[in-house]
Amino acid sequence: MTINIYNTLTRKKEPFQSLEKGKVKMYVCGPTVYNYIHIGNARPAIVFDAVRRFLEYRGYDVNYVMNFTDVDDKIIKAANELGEEVQDVSERFINAYLADVDALGVKIANHHPRVTETMDDIIAFIETLVEKGHAYEAAGDVYFKTRSFDNYGKLSHQSVEDLRSGARIQVGEKKDDPLDFTLWKQAKPGEIAWKSPWGEGRPGWHIECSAMVQKYLGETIDIHAGGQDLTFPHHENEIAQSEASTGKHFANYWMHNGYININNEKMSKSLGNFVLAHDLMKKHDPQVIRFFMLSVHYRNPINFSDSLLESAKNSLDRIVNAYQNLEHRKQSSTNLDKDIQSWLEKIDNYEQRFTDEMDDDFNTANAISVLFDITKDANLYLQSKQTSEQVIEKFQSTLSSLMEILGIQLVQQEDLLDEEIDAMIQDRIEARKNRNFALADEIRDKLKDKNIVLEDTAQGTRWKRV
Q1: Residue 411 and residue 466: Cα distance in Å, rounded?
Q2: 108, 129, 150, 323: most buried, per Cβ within 10 A?
Q3: Are 68 and 30 in contact (CB under 8 A)?
């Protein structure tokens, strides 16, 4: 069966066909790193990680890119309030993000580009837009000429005239049209800045992602994803500036996850009802949080409360307990079961049902219902007087592999071998040589989670078990 994806661009489900056979280019908008992430930020990290895992299960080689916005007004404000450098604030919260999502079972991306490391590419991108007549400089700022792009509004399904009626030029802006948006902003005194053909400054938010997509994935990609709130203006602006620059289609499939509500109210800082993932994981098992997030289809809003998380824990426990009961019974199996083949075929059918549900726009909610059906049958099977080790192992391997697609471990990983530790340390050394400090820190934290402590010395990196 073909994977079908709901495409925000066309507002319908479409059969997935990758640009290159067997490969997927996928970009997910990452966080602006000025604080710990809240559960609204955690949702896209979890759901699109599950999408990536399922695509890999279906045989695709996924080049997965998720950026860090490490220079922004919010980061500058946080740095000023804390009396710190912008780089120090962003570095701290990048590490915090990676630690949080790792605990939530999110695989590290193939690339985690940062704005500050992509500045030359961003400036070159803006220069191209200016040369092609799609952007203009105004007293040190550079704006995208929105009306120069004929299809503006095609993602959010809004007309230029409708958008213009609600657009305003803010105090201090020098743009020609209220719809025009910032590509480069002149630095204020004392702000972090980079040299450019238009003077010292820094990029606008939207151009950053376009430049990073192009650098790491190319001019046209398969899937671009993010939260529903990014559809307009961020993703709309990405399309406009990218397609104006290259003359090519930017992304074939646009995916957006729904909002999170807190006790039936939309989560927002103005209401003071947002919940930090960092704090939530002190109260609840990260695997339960992940399971809860995936228990609702990614496009639907999800309501959060402690009671719903407790319910998710009970549901996850049903699956975990069934797996453990199978393991216990395996030791005393008689292998006299006469219906081995029919049971094996039935379990295979469950795996196919799971795949069918995920093929239908990554419906994790329905896929989880299939896991409950497997659990129910496993418990029924264990009531039999005669059981087969082969059937039990089939139940276990199927539950384990399908839960792995959802990013949830049923079996605790064993301690790392010495050679595995040495290999990870070597990967960390290479990451640091390449100035990929996020990856280096991620490796260090993973070793720490396995009770392996590193010590960097003049003679090299030493490690010990604690």
Answers
A1: 22
A2: 129
A3: yes
Task: Report the distance separating Cα 423 and Cα 312, nearest Å.
Answer: 37
Sign of CA dihedral 446, 450, 453, 458: negative
Tokens of residue 158, six digits? 């809004």
DSSP 231: I
Q: What is the mean pLDDT of residues 42-55?
A: 98
Q: Give bridge partners of residue 142 from the DSSP assignment.
A: 137, 184
Whether the CB-CB separation of 152 and 46 falls below 8 Å is answered with no
d(CA 304, CA 148): 43
pLDDT in tens, 344-373: 999 999 999 999 999 999 999 999 999 999
Strand partners, 109: none
Burial of 358 (0-12, 13-18, 19+ CB in 10 A): buried
List CB contacts of 240: < 8 A, sequence separation 6 or more. Answer: 144, 146, 149, 151, 152
Collapse the DSSP code of 22 into the 3-class scheme (helix H, G, I; strand E, B; otherwise coil) and give the result: coil
Q: How confident is the model at residue 264 (pLDDT cuts 50, 70, 90)?
A: confident
Q: How far is CA 38 from the centre of its chain?
A: 14
Which residues, in sequence order, are bridge partners of residue 93? none
Determine the 3-state secondary structure of 336 from DSSP.
coil
**Structure confidence at residue 335 (pLDDT):** 64
pLDDT tens-place string over residues 236-252: 999 999 999 999 999 99
Residue 19 CB contacts under 8 Å (≥ 6 apart), including other chains: 25, 220, 221, 222, 252
